[in-house]
Amino acid sequence: xxxxxxxxxxxxxxxxxxxxxxxxxxxxxxxxxxxxxxxxxxxxxxxxxxxxxxxxxxxxxxxxxxxxxxxxxxx
Length: 75
Description:
This protein is an all-alpha fold. It has 6 helices and no strands. The longest helix is centred in the N-terminal third of the chain and has 12 residues, at 8-19.
């Protein structure tokens, strides 16, 4: 999906589903802090846009299998 067609809150929600927070996503891709927010505010960065696209294009199930559930953390 093209990022220009997505609402900024939808982009952020997709990232949070996979990484838990925007900051965790930015750290994982070695991006500057607040870079996702900047892209959502139409401040372009091809590096950040590519990172977002690479994550959004993958199904959530690929990420869910990697993260422990809350029940596993309680044990």
